[in-house]
Every structure is written in structure tokens, then in C-alpha cells.
Amino acid sequence: MTQIEPNAEPNADEKDATGEIRDRIVKLSSEEAAELLDETHPHLSVEVLQQINPAIAFDILEEMDVDARQAILEAAPPLQQNQWSRNENYEEDTVGRLMEPPLTVLLPHQTISDAIDAVKDLARTTLVTYLYVVDEGGRLLGLVTMRDLLLADDDAILRDVMAAEPFTLSPRMELPEAMKLVVSRHFPIYPVVEEGNILVGLVRGRVLFEEQAFEISAQPGRMVGVDKEERLSTPWPRSLKFRHPWLQLNLFTAFIAAAVVGIFQGTIDEIVILAAFLPVLAGQSGNTGCQALAVALRGLTLGELDSGKERALVAKEGLLGLFNGAMVGVTAAIGMYLAARAQGAAEPLTLSFIVFAAMIGSCVVSGIAGATIPLILRKLGADPATASSIFLTTATDVVSMGLFLGLATLLLI
Q1: Cα–Cα distance between 270 and 278 in angstroms, integer?
Q2: Residue 345: closest CA among 412, 291, 405, 396
Q3: Average of pLDDT values for 221-248?
């Protein structure tokens, strides 16, 4: 049952080459990294892929040319081959995509002396943190720390020194859920088990936190249509391919907002001062919606938004929109009154009321929209952050301008 596959220690030149390629790859998209590895010796590619985040390594393999990918799989140790094949069975953004092969797997009747002999060669090239004790069927029984291994008698058996029933993760567990479970534990490595407690891999705590940090850092870009694959080094044609479709969508939604203004063109022609306050309404409601959107996305990413709490979130953001809209509405109303008096516009008090009411209504709607848009996208099976800012801007512009000009038409025309 011992699964140790010690690799020959690379020479200095191989280490330098591996480090150089690894440092380049982590700055590239998976497609660009795949192109780089297509031109790299398979054995060197294996070394590089084993040193980076397993999820990134898997994404790169998926993008590679079929022949180059097959050459890498054939050059990889059997355990790594099996692990990459196993990880393919799990959904993206789950623990299963982050798994590494468990190298130090031993049987409960083996002695401490047997265990030391088994890991001695492996420890020269690999950091060994735990030994995993399984039965003949691969069921995880416990783990042995290196401290316990060194302090125990040589003839003691692993069953007697292992920590039984260790904390484990499921490979089908989504990353936010896994993060909630491990955030207070701080173990360096977590065993991953399938149904029946069968050990199927390991995931490093560092990798979990890297994935979560990357997910959070990618959100601002996805909100405005920047793909998470895009890096500083991405060639401009590829960046254009990533970004341009969303700009076309943004232009379409801008036409919708413009059409709303066009409906009330007669009102604007008659009360010119209204045009000066359109960006004020749009700006304030847009900012209110973006605040709600940021909180909702953060909650979804960190796994804080449990099922059943969606209504509470929407109600909270609507209430915040009401109070914020009322407070900024007072300031905007004063500004409208002073501007209307200075320009000699008719009914400055009515204009002030219109600004005040429109500000409240648009901030309430934008707060609710900011909370509901990512929830709707998630319900539809899409990434909640994807172009959410574009959809939010459309909603806030249409509502703020439509409400403002509609009230003006109703009360003054």
C-alpha cells in the first residue's frame, strides 16, 4: 500500500530551468502557458506543473495540444498521472480540482521503522508533513505527524501512534464551503476523501487560500467584462477578444438608457435645468448599487450568504438605499432649488421635491438591483460577477433617469 515514488533529484541546471519557466507561467493565462509548455521538454513540463497550483496546472493541461499533453502525462510519475485523471472528474471551483497525490500512504500494521525507511528517500526531494494510514481498501484510518514518527519506538506500529479520524474534506465540496471549514484550523495539508472515507488526494491549505484570494482579486475585472484569464502580459489581440464583446453589450444597454431620455426629450427642452441633474441622479444611484453589488459578491465568494438569507440581504440593501437616498436627496434638492432660483426657472420648490423623490426611489431600486443581480446570475448557473456592473449600470440609469423625468413630466408639464 505504500505509495511513495521518490523522484531523482534534479541537477542545478534543471532546477534553474524549472524555476524560470514556473515564474513565467504563473504570470500567463492558461492558454498562453499551454503554448509555452508545448515547446518545453515533457519531463521539465511535469516538474513545472507539479510546483504550481494544481487547479492552474489542470487548466493548462486542458488547453494544451493533444500530442503535447499526452507526452507530459506519459512523462509524469504514475501517481501524478492518476491524480490528474481523477481531478478531471470534479467540477471547476471544487476541492477535487486542487488535489495532489498522497505519496506517504502506509498500512496500520507497519512499524515506525518501516515508515522511516519508506519516507527517507522521499524526504530528500519532498516536504513530508504527514503519513496517511489506510486499510487494504484505501479507507483513511488516521495520520501520523513527523513529530510522532520521530518520538515513537522503532518497533511500534502505526495504528498505535496515529491520530484517528482526522479532519477531512470532500472532493465535491465547493471552495467557499471548504474555506469556511478550514479558516480556523490552519493545517498545512488536508486529506480529501470520497464516500466511504476512501482517500483520493490531498489539498494544501496554502492552495485553498491562493484560490480564494485569486477569486476575490478577479471579481472587479469580471464585473466590467475583463476575463479572469487576462494578465498584464496578455497580447493585445487576445485582450481585445476578451473585452470587446462586453463593450458591445455595454453600448447596447447605453442605448436603452438613451432611449428613456429620448422619450422625455420634450420635457427636457421645456425645462432645460433637468439635463444638468441627470448625471447627478445616475451617479448617486449607480454608486449605491455598486456598494450593494460589492457586498453581495463578497458574501457569495466567502460563502457567507447561506441559503435562505437572500431576502434579508435584499431587504437590507433596499433599506440602506432608502436612508442614503433620503439624505443625499436633501442635499440634491437644496442644490436644485438654488440652481433653479439662479436661472429663474419656474416652480423651484417643485423641482426640488422632484429631485428629492427621484433620488430616494432610484437609490432604493439600485440597492435592490445590486443585491439581486449576482443572485439571479448564480441562479441561472452563471458566474455572479460576470459583467454584473454592466447590468447594474443599465438598471440604475433607466430607473433614475426615467423616474426623474417622469415625475417632472407629471408634475410640471
Answers
A1: 15
A2: 412
A3: 68
Q: Which helix (H) or strand (E) holds 143?
A: strand 140-145
Backbone angles phi, psi at 407, to 5 degrees: -65, -40
Helix (H) or strand (E) holding 212: helix 205-223
Q: Cell 498545512 maps to which residue?
A: 188
Q: What is the C-alpha to C-alpha distance for residues 324 and 317, in angstroms, rounded to an integer? A: 10
No. of helices (H) and no. of strands (E), the chain: 17, 6
- The SS3 call for residue 332 is helix
CA angle 322, 362, 325 (to 5 degrees): 35
Largest CA distance in the chain: 99
- Sorted by sequence, the CB contacts under 8 Å of residue 407 that are 6+ apart come out as 354, 357, 358
Nearest CA-CA partner of 333 in 359, 302, 314, 368: 359
Instruction: Give the mean model confidence (pLDDT) for residues 247-257.
Output: 82
Rounded Cα distance between 215 and 217, Å, is 6
Instruction: With beta carbons less than 8 A apart as the criterion, state whether 165 and 197 touch.
Output: no
Q: What are the grid coordinates assigned to 379, written together?
A: 441562479
Length of the chain: 413
Q: Is the pLDDT of residue 5 over 60?
A: no
| 368 grid coordinates | 435592490
Query: Pairing mode, if any, of strands 130-134 and 140-145?
Result: antiparallel
Q: Which helix (H) or strand (E) holds 392?
A: helix 388-412
> Is 90 exceeded by the pLDDT of residue 269?
no
C-alpha cell at 90: 470534479
Tell me whether residue 195 is exposed, middle or buried, using C-beta atoms within 10 angstroms of its C-beta: 0 to 12, 13 to 18, 19 or more.
Answer: exposed
Cell output for 306? 447561506
Q: Model-level pTM?
A: 0.59
8-state DSSP, 7: P
Between the alpha carbon of residue 281 and those of residues 266, 275, 325, 343, 400, the distances in Å are 19, 11, 10, 20, 6
Secondary structure class of 111 (helix, strand, coil): strand
Q: Where are the beta strands (DSSP E) in 168-233?
A: 189-194, 198-204
Residues facing residue 198 across a β-bridge: 139, 194
For residues 297 and 287, what is the distance between their CA atoms, to the nearest angstrom? 15
Q: Name the helix (H) or strand (E) containing 163.
A: strand 163-164
Using one digit for the tens of pLDDT, what is the confidence trace for 68-114?
888 888 888 888 888 888 888 888 888 999 898 988 899 999 999 98
Closest to 302 measured CA to CA, from 172, 211, 185, 180: 180
Helix (H) or strand (E) segment spanning residue 133: strand 130-134
